């Protein structure tokens, strides 16, 4: 394994980020909004998945979540108090189009219009993500992402949202982490809709790529020329367990399935040949039609990068289930790679069991810069879950998160010094919330939420991050 962490480096001077660097926090609609049956919202695949016994810890669901739908004004005021310059939210597709087809529900669009106006009134830049995993259940009933029609419907949905918000939202993301949608949703089955078909996962990956292309076209047609359009990928920093040739090939194979399956079509207009060869026993990729790749490779203004933990692999069958950073499953999210083993690297871990390794973010940013010189980047998610609690005095002390943030922001700053064009950082997440298959058991928030009362309590790390965001300066020591 390569890379060095800030702990290995002598403390230097404070680090100043570039003028105009965007400091924000992010959420996802299903994780925070609640109001699942209000104002015409239709069911999503996560509503269904949560009601499938054994899929979500404790049988939790997002029916209420943290009630952001009703409390957004207070939440925006809290963002302003914390000095955030931007808020990355996602639009709930079934809130806008309950079945994924037809005209928009006015009440659904109105919520996002009100949220956007509230952000602007507080001087906070709204950053809209069109899709963060909440596919309308009606589209899943028709086949979901493995079917081409879902991509076509997504383009129509993008046009509806752009028409409603395009005059006020300057930054847009089409999809958040399509790898998770495809390979956790249709491969390992640990995410909605919970299917376990490797060919369906590959088909879903392509149609998510196509959906991005259709959305870019719709956004460009509706938005002013100054608007920025992007996609967010959870790019994997894949590292070999040893220096052996077999482990190097395991890295190549997983890199193709985690990264290049998306970046190849996006930037080169082609799927990598080794990916096609690796999966040839499963599919001939005939679902890729003429014109698809030209659509997918339409220019974007920047690439969103989400990073949490590096991926360590070897060639062999001896590894740890769930060591790839996801819930253990009897089914692999890596089609055609059953002989690749995953390993949990040593070191401090978060409450998710993920190792804290800022060097992975630094190395990942340098790699993207090397492979795609001149491409602007934005850290659209980075953060950590810890076992937070409120003290009798009403405070939440989370020094581990402050150390985590300091190390990762230092990694971003070092990448900028190395010439990487990084333009912003969004902490995951603004609020403790529904953490997908983990239910309410994992707290990623800057702000602690008492789920019984919905009381919000900014954690010590939120105050720390607030000072960094206000000044654009990362102190030499983490002060945690």
Automatic annotation (TrEMBL):
Entry's InterPro entries? Answer: GH, GH_1_N_CS, Glyco_hydro_1, Glyco_hydro_1_beta-glucosidase
Q: Where is the active site?
A: 177, 381
Q: Which reaction does it catalyse?
A: Hydrolysis of terminal, non-reducing beta-D-glucosyl residues with release of beta-D-glucose
Q: Which GO terms describe its biological process?
A: cellulose catabolic process
Alphabetically, the GO molecular function entries are: beta-glucosidase activity
Look up the EC number in the record and give it. Answer: 3.2.1.21
Family as reported in the entry's similarity comment: Belongs to the glycosyl hydrolase 1 family.
NCBIfam families xref list: BGL
This chain's protein is named: Beta-glucosidase
Q: Which organism is it from?
A: Wenjunlia vitaminophila
């Amino acid at each position: 394994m390569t890379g060095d962490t800030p702990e290995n480096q002598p403390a230097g001077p404070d680090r100043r980020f570039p003028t105009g660097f965007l400091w924000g926090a992010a959420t996802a609609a299903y994780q925070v909004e609640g109001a699942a049956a209000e104002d015409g919202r239709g069911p999503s695949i996560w509503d269904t998945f949560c009601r499938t016994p054994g899929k979500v810890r404790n049988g939790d669901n997002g029916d209420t979540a943290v009630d952001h739908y009703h409390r957004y004004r207070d939440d925006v005021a809290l963002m302003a108090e914390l000095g955030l310059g931007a808020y990355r939210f996602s639009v709930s597709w079934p809130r806008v189009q309950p079945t994924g087809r037809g005209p928009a529900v006015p009440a659904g669009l109105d919520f996002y219009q009100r949220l956007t106006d509230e952000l602007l009134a507080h001087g906070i830049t709204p950053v809209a993500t069109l899709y963060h995993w909440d596919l309308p259940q009606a589209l899943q009933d028709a086949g979901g992402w493995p079917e081409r029609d879902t991509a076509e419907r997504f383009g129509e949905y993008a046009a509806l949202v752009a028409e409603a918000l395009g005059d006020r939202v300057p930054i847009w993301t089409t999809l958040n982490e399509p790898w998770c949608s495809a390979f956790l949703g249709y491969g390992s089955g640990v995410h909605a809709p919970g299917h376990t078909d490797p060919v369906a996962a590959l088909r879903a990956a392509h149609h998510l790529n196509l959906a991005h292309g259709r959305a870019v076209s719709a956004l460009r047609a509706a938005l002013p020329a100054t608007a920025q359009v992007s996609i967010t990928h959870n790019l994997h920093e894949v590292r070999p367990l040893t220096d052996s040739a077999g482990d190097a090939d395991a890295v190549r194979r997983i890199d193709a399935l985690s990264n290049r399956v998306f970046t190849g079509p996006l930037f080169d207009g082609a799927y990598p040949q080794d990916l096609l060869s690796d999966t040839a026993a499963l599919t001939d990729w005939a679902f890729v039609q003429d014109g698809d790749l030209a659509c997918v490779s339409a220019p974007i203004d920047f690439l969103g990068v989400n990073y949490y933990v590096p991926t360590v692999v070897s060639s062999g069958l001896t590894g740890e289930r769930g060591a790839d950073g996801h819930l253990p499953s009897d089914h692999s999210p890596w089609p055609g790679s059953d002989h690749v083993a995953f390993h949990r690297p040593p070191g401090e871990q978060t409450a998710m069991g993920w190792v804290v390794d800022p060097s992975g973010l630094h190395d990942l940013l340098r790699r993207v810069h090397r492979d795609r010189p001149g491409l602007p980047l934005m850290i659209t998610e980075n953060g950590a879950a810890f076992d937070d609690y409120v003290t009798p005095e009403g405070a939440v002390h989370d020094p581990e998160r402050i150390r985590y943030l300091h190390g990762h922001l230092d990694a971003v700053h070092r990448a900028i010094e190395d010439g990487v064009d990084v333009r912003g950082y969004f902490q995951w997440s603004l609020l403790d919330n529904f953490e997908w298959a983990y239910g309410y058991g994992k707290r990623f928030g800057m702000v602690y939420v008492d789920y019984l009362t919905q009381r919000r309590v900014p954690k010590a790390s939120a105050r720390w991050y607030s000072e960094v965001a206000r000044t654009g300066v990362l102190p030499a020591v983490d002060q945690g």
